[in-house]
What we know:
Blueprint: H1 19-48, H2 51-57, H3 66-84, H4 91-108, H5 111-115, H6 118-141, H7 147-170, H8 173-204, H9 212-240
Helix pairs in contact: 1-4, 1-8, 1-9, 3-4, 4-9, 6-8, 6-9, 7-8, 8-9
Amino acid sequence: xxxxxxxxxxxxxxxxxxxxxxxxxxxxxxxxxxxxxxxxxxxxxxxxxxxxxxxxxxxxxxxxxxxxxxxxxxxxxxxxxxxxxxxxxxxxxxxxxxxxxxxxxxxxxxxxxxxxxxxxxxxxxxxxxxxxxxxxxxxxxxxxxxxxxxxxxxxxxxxxxxxxxxxxxxxxxxxxxxxxxxxxxxxxxxxxxxxxxxxxxxxxxxxxxxxxxxxxxxxxxxxxxxxxxxxxxxxxxxxxxxxx
Length: 244
């Protein structure tokens, strides 16, 4: 469970930003988001169906191996690396990290194919797509400023992260249910908030996505929506997933 909300750039209102430019930026964001989701899904399925690859992540006794733990936490580390070095990295380097992040996320998510049936995973994916698409449209079209709403959602996100860490030791089924329910609400809300933020960034972009910084902004925006989708999917899977 992770999300990235801090903006690595300072955006100023452009006097020449136009609606076609904004739409081009948003289209690029969704393109890279879908590419990342595709890479993640393919990697997760490949790992789950290849015993030799799963053997890297699982010990013979059935526990998580050291490499498994490294792969599981490496996507979070990459998010911090990308955000902390955004202004120093070139767009191609950022793209390489973005693709690497998508692959590692896929490897870390391969366990869901072992825990849940393929049919329930596909069903949950469709439900997630519907909810995500609806909230993305809401965020893009609403005239209401969602800035304060987004701040509340982000505070809620911090809360469920802390609660999840605590529940790792408590093993409370009730708390797990509450965390999952709140997680669905929070990432549904963050989808609308992030979509509005991306629309505004697109309106401030001066020119098409040929500039190095604009390419990096596109990747960061795609990463934000990608994390909203993945986290929403994982929380919904706790409700709709049928365990093997």
